[in-house]
Amino acid sequence: MGPDQPGAAHFHTASKPLKEVDIRLPENLVKGAVKLDPNLKKYLGDEFPAESNTNVTWAYNEVLTDLITRLSIELKLPQSERNTYALKFEDRGNDGVFLTKENRNLVPQGFILILTASPERYAHNFLARLRNPSGDLRTTLAELIALCGDISFATQFMRIGGYDYIFEVIEKGLCTDSVSCQSRFLQALLMLMDHTGLMYWSQVSDEFVSKIAENITGRAKQEDNTLLVSSLNIIDLILNSKNEGKMNLVLREVPFESLIRHLEKSDERVILNVLTLMNSLYSKARDHVKNDIIEVRVLIFIQVKKS
């Protein structure tokens, strides 16, 4: 059948080439979902929907607080006061738990964020639970440690006196009956103090230095390797904090010889931190003390060779 005969199919080619259409979102827009934190009531005390979520398109130039307000309205949450809610990454592997204007560029297309209580509310909740533990304090401390690496939480926790309370616990020996709790307090403190610009090791009290030194020199009631590792780390940080008064205090409280017995431990973390502190003590010591340290080092070397 020819093309001009009845019943023949006719195909027409476009007179102009088709243009490709870019269906991608503009670079300043991301689409994703927001879920409501099922534990929101724990931090805010109000009644909230048991489970809720919403799809959202977010322009990077939209103010973060405006986005949070918009989402809280969409999810029908109480609108009582400012700084009640916040967003956090579902995956804690991201740079910080809470979403801020500094890390908002980490939000990808197809994101899932959690609408939760603000860092301020988290800080108040944890400080209250630390002061008046109604359950297992170790569980509270484990949850605290999970948040201490976040600058938003740490800033609020310091503002309301959270740092001061942890120092008070250590200085007054309020947790000496539980090595596990002591260890977790120090782990939390190490993470909190690691944030730049909040508080420095040169600012800690002499009482705190003395208490931490007890965990190293054997004057403490109990010994634990994890507690010892944190204590060695803290003393080294204080020693190198560029505060002459604190340096001299550490040199008095932690004699070089007091570290030797810890080299016999099988825990590699302990040995590494002991050797690090030994080097710091040597570098800060006066010349006549350095000679004594060298003699001790020689004796250690001879003992190791014999064994």
Automatic annotation (TrEMBL):
Residue span, ELMO armadillo-like helical domain: 153-295
InterPro entries the UniProt entry points to: ARM-like, ARM-type_fold, ELMO_ARM
A Pfam cross-reference name: ELMO_ARM
Superkingdom of this protein's organism: Eukaryota
Name of protein: ELMO armadillo-like helical domain-containing protein
Species the sequence originates in: Acanthocheilonema viteae
